[in-house]
Design goal:
Layout lengths: L1 E9 L2 E3 L5 E3 L2 H17 L7 E9 L5 E10 L10
Antiparallel strand pairs: 1-2, 1-3, 1-4, 4-5
Length: 83
């Protein structure tokens, strides 16, 4: 089993994973990164009409090997000015 680190890029904020997680197979890295994204974006209401959160995965040699991102976009369809 190998250890991978799941860093989070949340707009301008970056949180480095110092602990890491063991994954039995490289495919588990992708699944873990993608599963984390909906909860991250669901916990935050963006100030504007767009929001993006990413998980960047590093291996045990500190090389970035995978990125998964989720983008939220919103727009008014009429000119009600948000009211």
């Amino acid at each position: 089993m190998a250890r991978y680190f799941f860093d989070v890029q949340d707009g301008p904020d970056f949180v480095k994973d110092e602990d890491g997680h063991d994954c039995a197979a490289i495919g588990d890295v992708r699944i873990a990164a993608m599963k984390a994204l909906p909860a991250m974006i669901g916990a935050k209401i963006p100030d504007g009409d767009g929001y993006r959160v990413s998980v960047i995965v590093r291996d045990d040699e500190d090389h970035a090997i995978y990125r998964a991102s989720l983008t939220l976009e919103s727009t008014w369809l009429s000119n009600r000015d948000g009211q």
